[in-house]
Amino acid sequence: NITITSEGGSATMQLQQGVAKAWVNFDGGAGTLSARDSFNQASLTDNGTGDYSLNFTNSMNNANFNFSVSSGDVGGTNPDRDEGVKELTTALGRIFVYHTSTEAARDEGYVGGLTHGDLA
User: Can you tell me the distance from the alpha carbon of 108 to that of 61, in angstroms, rounded to the nearest whole number?
Assistant: First the structure.
């Protein structure tokens, strides 16, 4: 538990509040999902095309945490995609990747999730 004082000395922040509690980088187009690298990720679940659950090793305190997602075709040129949060529980964050030009879900070569909030 570390408190950091701002450069001007008038504000403080608890470091533990700003640290990522979980993150993962994986290939969503792989036959079997596995993390390239991760922190606090127990497993990945492929729920269907473009639909992934990122299961935490250590649960979050509640489902009101911040969960950021990103996706892309590594080395590709298709920028017309949207990704978003489909579901949040204390045990997982669920991602959905959708391509606007084809109006369909799509498995991407790069998918990432980043979690900030309080651990249980």
Answer: 30
